[in-house]
Design goal:
Blueprint (H helix, E strand, L loop, with lengths): L8 H4 L12 H13 L4 E5 L6 H13 L3 H4 E5 L6 H13 L9 E6 L6 H13 L4 E7 L7 H4 L2 E5 L5 H14 L3 E2 L1 H11 L3 H14 L2 E2 L1 H7 L5 H12 L3 H14 L4 H12 L6 H19 L4 H20 L1
Parallel strand pairs: 1-4, 1-5, 2-3, 3-4, 6-7
The structure holds adenosine-5'-diphosphate and magnesium ion.
């Protein structure tokens, strides 16, 4: 048997069939109906990272072409080369040549199509028209608004949703079973929390934890993903909003120094809690504004230690202001 201990699980467990893709049922049903009918319009897949766009495109090609899928399918990433040359050269070259092995058309999958410049998109649109007989395009992007209207109107648009709890849980259970891992319920919850609907993140977290032990608990998941537990973020905010600067600072230092959690990650996690927590509206607005300021300063390269301390100090001052 091949030693696959170094295989990346997102590749090893990438669903090969449309039916094995979880959490996108309506989209999958419609893609399967194209396979049944033997015809395909140009498609535009939109949605955030790790929700199954590439997986669906490859699975669709496999089901359309069977054995010869490799010959009739090409995947390109537009962010490698964003200009018009990629359209003129690689895309046109592929689109203009005849389909092989009796297929009626080829499929070109263009990932991160929103990275193409508007000029390149205009050229792409002309290519899509000229070679529509021999080539179908599947474009993938995060936001359809970055794709020019004439392309959007030529495609059937599919909006992939961030994956829900049940979908992530199902896939993690499937992989854990195949890898003979024991995984506790709270560890699954932790994976769902850190993944935020991104299956790539979820599977990578599971694989990371499995390197530490075959019995996976919540602690390992937070440790290997360098993420704070939700209760730790709550504690940081509780102390700050009670006006306990020293207490909040101690928690902050523990998270940054001992746990090695990145300042940006902490800011994102605080944000996720603040938008949901029951709070005076004025205070919530002010706290989120403060987070935004810190986020910006960090992006400009300010000293992160000082900025994170200043963030906590700002929270303390704001909580005093709004409680008086
Ligand atoms: N809906 C899904 N069902 C099952 N696995 C998924 C799904 N979405 C993503 N994955 C897993 O995550 C990995 C990355 O997914 P991918 O399709 O490349 O995401 P995207 O193209 O949307 O960024 C896949 O290899 C697969 O293992
Ligand atoms: Mg992709």
């Amino acid at each position: 048997m091949m030693d696959d201990s170094h295989t990346i699980w997102i590749e090893k467990y990438r669903p090969q069939k449309l039916a094995d893709i979880v959490g996108q049922n309506e989209i999958i049903e419609r893609l399967e109906s194209y396979v049944k009918s033997g015809n395909l319009p140009h498609l535009l897949f939109t949605g955030s990272a790790g929700v199954g766009k590439t997986t669906a495109a490859v699975a669709l090609a496999r089901e359309f072409f069977g054995e010869s899928w490799h010959m009739n399918f090409r995947e390109l990433n537009a962010s490698d080369e964003r200009g018009i040359d990629v359209v003129r050269n690689q895309i046109k070259q592929f689109a203009r040549t005849s389909p092989l092995e009796g297929a009626t058309f080829k499929i070109l999958f263009l990932d991160e199509a929103d990275a193409l410049t508007p000029d390149a998109q205009a050229a792409l649109r002309r290519t899509m028209e000229s070679y529509a007989q021999t080539c179908r395009f599947i474009l993938s992007c995060n936001y359809s608004s970055k794709i020019i209207d004439p392309i959007q109107s030529r495609c059937a648009i599919y909006r992939f949703r961030a994956l829900g709890r049940d979908a992530v849980k199902e896939e993690i259970h499937r992989i854990a079973t195949q890898e003979s891992l024991t995984i506790q319920e709270d560890a699954i919850d932790a994976i769902i929390y850190i993944a935020q609907g991104d299956m790539r993140k979820a599977i990578n977290a599971l694989q990371g934890a499995a390197i530490i032990s075959r019995e996976i608990d919540e602690k390992m998941v937070y440790a290997i993903t360098a993420t704070a537990r939700p209760d730790e973020i709550d504690e940081l905010l509780d102390l700050s909003l009670k006006g306990d600067f020293e207490g909040a600072e101690a928690v902050l230092q523990k998270l940054l120094q001992e746990r090695g959690i990145a300042p940006n990650e902490l800011i994102t996690q605080c944000y996720r809690v603040l938008v949901r927590r029951p709070l005076d509206q004025g205070l919530r607005v002010a706290l989120i504004d403060q987070l935004g300021v810190t986020d910006f300063r960090l992006s400009e390269g300010a000293n992160s230690e000082i900025q994170m301390e200043a963030l906590i100090a700002g929270f303390v001052m704001l909580s005093r202001k709004y409680s008086s």
